[in-house]
Amino acid sequence: MTDEPVAPPADERTTATTDLVTGEDGLARPVWAATDAMLRDYYDTEWGMPVHDERGVFERLSLEAFQSGLSWRTILAKRPAFRAAFADFDPDTVARFDEDDVARLMADAGIVRNQAKIRATITNANATVALRADGGLADLVWSFRPDATPAPRTAAEVPTTSPESVALSKALRKRGFAFVGPTTMHALMEALGIVDTHLLGSHRRGTSGVWA
Fold this sequence. Notes:
By secondary structure, the chain is mostly helical. 45% of the residues lie in helices and 4% in strands. It is built from 9 helices and 3 strands. It holds the Pfam family Adenine_glyco. InterPro entries: Adenine_glyco, DNA-3mA_glycosylase, DNA_glycosylase.
């Protein structure tokens, strides 16, 4: 996640040593998820929960690529439009997108109109389909789960890359994927629950069942 922190309202308590905010509901969250309702709901219910199906992994890989250089909130707000524009991220359908679809997507104000990222999503759909012959995208991504997960106390301690994300990036590039750099792949691993970078003390820490 790369969204800029937002100052919490006066009725919430911050803990400087952990970068956590305890809300009126008594739950501790990182600053980025403490005040904005959409980000708070995403943090509470989705981020870091395990995703193992091909479509789900492909969607998150695609959205992480679109997020590069932008805030995650921007992408999250546009996610319904992305899903509509990219056929709910069905890899088979997206793999068949042609130049008319690229033009359609570049004219769609509801999404991020970046031609390189749009073309990369189509490229990655084709790579995802091809990867089925060798176990599939989800199995490949999850095969890079590390032996241990980070245990950050502060936002500054949350890593943005890891040896596993570097290795995953290389493996995906070898398979024909684009926009899969190590930082983007680390964010993907966080989103999918492959690593748990919830701050120690957060109400979400250890709730995925992967790193209990």
